[in-house]
């Protein structure tokens, strides 16, 4: 990589990246809200997991902000245990909001240099922090799409995907 490449202006600032990510997170939160409580935890199609489990995976992964920002990766087993303890939509939304606040609080550590740092997120994704973050967003969007299918199958109009 040339010095000119390293010093090239960013396409998005860290603040714009945060706004983009939080836009996705806000939309996924509205998808969670759209589910009736029982169906959130029980409804599935074709053997896929219920949306509560998909949302818990996405929010658990988002707790990786500490890993991305500081290299402190909470053991994934701890995150899974926290998710397994959640049994209501209210608890899921509260956890979602808690992680949203944590992301906002820790974001100042996400400097352009930090985005280029290499990390290993829980042993399953290694690379520059920006690639890890994009994986986090892609994973959430993928699971949110499954939630849209579930809502439509339940006869519920999902939130507009472009209103982030």
Automatic annotation (TrEMBL):
<feature type="binding site">
    <location>
        <position position="143"/>
    </location>
    <ligand>
        <name>a divalent metal cation</name>
    </ligand>
</feature>
<protein>
    <submittedName>
        <fullName>Putative damage-inducible protein DinB</fullName>
    </submittedName>
</protein>
<dbReference type="GO" id="GO:0046872">
    <property type="term" value="F:metal ion binding"/>
</dbReference>
<dbReference type="Pfam" id="PF05163">
    <property type="entry name" value="DinB"/>
</dbReference>
<dbReference type="InterPro" id="IPR007837">
    <property type="entry name" value="DinB"/>
</dbReference>
<keyword id="KW-0479">Metal-binding</keyword>
<dbReference type="InterPro" id="IPR034660">
    <property type="entry name" value="DinB/YfiT-like"/>
</dbReference>
<comment type="similarity">
    <text>Belongs to the DinB family.</text>
</comment>
């Amino acid at each position: 990589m040339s010095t000119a490449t390293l010093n090239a202006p960013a396409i998005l600032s860290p603040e714009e990246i945060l706004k983009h990510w939080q836009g996705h997170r806000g939309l996924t939160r509205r998808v969670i809200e759209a589910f009736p409580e029982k169906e959130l935890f029980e409804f599935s199609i074709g053997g896929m997991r219920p949306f509560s489990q998909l949302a818990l995976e996405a929010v658990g992964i988002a707790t990786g902000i500490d890993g991305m920002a500081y290299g402190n990766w909470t053991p994934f087993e701890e995150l899974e245990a926290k998710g397994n303890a959640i049994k209501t939509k209210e608890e899921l939304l509260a956890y979602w909001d808690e992680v949203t606040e944590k992301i906002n609080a820790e974001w100042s550590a996400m400097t352009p240099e930090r985005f280029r740092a290499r990390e290993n997120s829980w042993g399953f994704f290694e690379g520059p922090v920006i690639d890890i973050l994009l994986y986090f967003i892609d994973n959430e969007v993928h699971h949110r799409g499954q939630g849209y299918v579930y809502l439509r199958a339940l006869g519920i109009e999902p939130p507009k995907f472009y209103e982030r």
